[in-house]
From TrEMBL:
This is PNPLA domain-containing protein. Residues 5-163 form the PNPLA domain. One of its GO terms (biological process) is lipid catabolic process. The keyword Magnesium does not apply. GO terms for molecular function: hydrolase activity. It comes from marine sediment metagenome.
């Protein structure tokens, strides 16, 4: 049976995806196809490469994202995305999609053409890095003459790649919209940021119907995109939310068969 797993972007909130994977496996659910963007592309690539959930979690804890040796020079971004290549090479010595045990789809945004591109063959590491290139923080990455940034800019819940090949699709969405009051929008940039988030969330929510079920914990609203202090808490939220969803589905299925 082919089982697809869609992993959204969300910065460090993407660690919740790892908790989702742990809970699914404990319940005998092993995805065969992965589609991810941004942080979801990183988690998805490692998982598709056969890396255990505990090792993926450790990866997020030890990788020095904001170290001074990552700073970009003469590139449009604070951090040079390509300087993360060696960390990924340790996990993917054979740098190509075809070497992965699971089928993987990774999305990235062509910053010049303004188009979404789905990578699923050939070179692996650069597309994964490109997908996670948060605009303004990380420098765009070049792949075959084109320059790419975060796939979540155009599609933060890339379920489309799985619809034709998977009998079951599970979604993990880690960017729920935070409840606010008008007093929270004190400055113009707060309004702009809110508008962007509303558009992104709306586009993603519209695609939840394409999944058999979706894990989207509201508690993740409380964590900032790059706040590395709460990795364990975010992981536990992803795990516990998945267990809750699976238990609820079991109750519904039992009631229907009685």
């Amino acid at each position: 049976m082919s089982v697809g797993l869609v992993l959204s972007g969300g910065g460090i909130r993407g660690v919740a995806h790892i908790g989702v994977i742990k809970a699914l496996e404990e319940n005998g659910i092993y995805p065969t196809h992965i589609s991810g963007t941004s942080a979801g592309a990183i988690v998805g690539a490692l998982y598709a490469g056969g890396i255990k959930w505990a090792d993926i979690l450790e990866f997020f804890k030890v990788i020095p994202i904001f170290h001074t040796n990552r700073f970009a020079r003469r590139k449009p971004g604070f951090l040079d995305t390509e300087k993360f290549y060696d960390e990924f090479k340790n996990f993917f010595p054979e740098d190509k999609f075809e070497s992965l045990p699971k089928k993987l789809f990774v999305t990235a945004t062509d910053i010049i053409k303004g188009e979404l591109v789905v990578f699923n063959s050939g070179e692996l590491i650069k597309p994964v890095l490109a997908s996670a290139t948060f605009p303004g923080v990380f420098s765009p990455i070049e792949i075959e003459g084109s320059f790419y940034i975060d796939g979540g800019v155009l599609n933060n819940f890339p379920v489309e790649s799985l619809k034709s090949s998977c009998e079951t699709i599970i979604g993990s969405y880690v960017n729920p919209l935070k409840n606010l009051e008008i007093k929270d929008l004190k400055h113009s940039y707060n309004v702009v940021d809110r508008a962007y988030k509303i558009k992104s969330v709306s586009d993603s929510l519209a695609k939840f119907k394409d999944c058999d079920f979706v894990i989207s914990p509201e508690a993740l609203c409380e964590f900032a995109t790059f706040d590395m202090r709460y990795i364990d808490a975010i992981f536990e939220i992803g795990y516990n939310s998945t267990i809750e969803v699976l238990n609820e589905r079991d109750k519904i299925n039992k009631s229907l068969t009685n």
